[in-house]
Design goal:
This protein is mainly α. It has one domain. α1 runs antiparallel to α2. The protein is globular. About 25% of the residues are buried.
Length: about 80
């Protein structure tokens, strides 16, 4: 297993992740699913990563909430 990305929550909140943290986690989970051959999970998290990817002229979200991402993070951190 690769090194896990950081879980960074928005200031004063325990719901959701910062946009950057969610992006790193979505990329990580998509990569792990690709290596495992689980293409349904890969497609889901690749789509999330594409939505959150940094682009010129696009602001990084301060808070995003994806239940599927939270569930996968719990699987990897526990």
């Amino acid at each position: 297993m690769n090194k896990l990305p950081p879980v960074i929550r928005p200031y004063n909140s325990n719901i959701g992740l910062t946009g950057e943290s969610a992006y790193l986690w979505a990329c990580f989970i998509a990569n792990e699913a690709d290596m495992d051959g689980d293409y349904i999970v890969y497609d889901e998290f690749k789509t999330i990563a594409d939505q959150l990817a940094p682009k010129p002229g696009k602001a990084t979200p301060s808070c995003v909430v994806y239940q599927s991402l939270e569930t996968k993070i719990q699987e990897y951190t526990q």
